[in-house]
Amino acid sequence: MTAAEAETRVSEFWEPGTTIEWVYEGTGRHRELPNVRPMTVIRDDEEGLVAWLAPGTPLIKPVLVDGRETRLAGPERMFTEDRVLKLDIWHGTGILKVSPTGKPWSVWHFWGEDGSFRGWYVNLEAEHRRDADARRTSTVDYVLDLWINPDRTIEWKDEDELEGAVAAGRFTQAEADRITADAHAAVRDIKAWTTPFSNNWHTFIPDPHLRLPEAPTGYTVTHITQHLLG
Questions:
Q1: What 3-state class would DSSP assign to 58?
Q2: pTM (2 decimals)?
Q3: Confidence check: pLDDT of 227 > 50
Q4: Minimal CA–CA distance to 99: which of 58, 138, 57, 143?
């Protein structure tokens, strides 16, 4: 790698403290309805992106037209029912997300209200594509997830929703099989306790002076409810 190539590669990384948008793109008939979460970069390098979603962060997400969460429509209809965008906030405790380079998943770290570590959530998703100028990293959610308890036992989650996604035409059966294979690959990494699980991010403590990011902009206001829900 030449010096110029090295400088270009380094410039692709965001500095700690940078506010970015972590985006789950809409797909199919919901293509124009993304889930947009402003987050603060904690670390960004060749190993991957680490970012913090603080409690109370304003965000934009797709919901059913009556305002309910999409999954409340059921494991198949959640992919077919009409949606709108809603301006909301992140409720509950903050989440530290790690997007490992080259992996079709991200790892989310959850804590309880008392600060105790609750576990790791492996969100199956497309490898991220970043827009450095827009400070945005984009992916597509793959529906299937894994939960890892502090004792490292593994639970599979949302298998019924993946089946519903196939029935609704969101994924083909071949795509669902690949997603399931990705989950098994993640399980192998978990059992081997490779990075990022071995990086001790569960001991992370956010800077109490970090400012909340501002709400995402540039989205059609007719698709967004006009108030924050408490």
A1: strand
A2: 0.90
A3: no
A4: 138
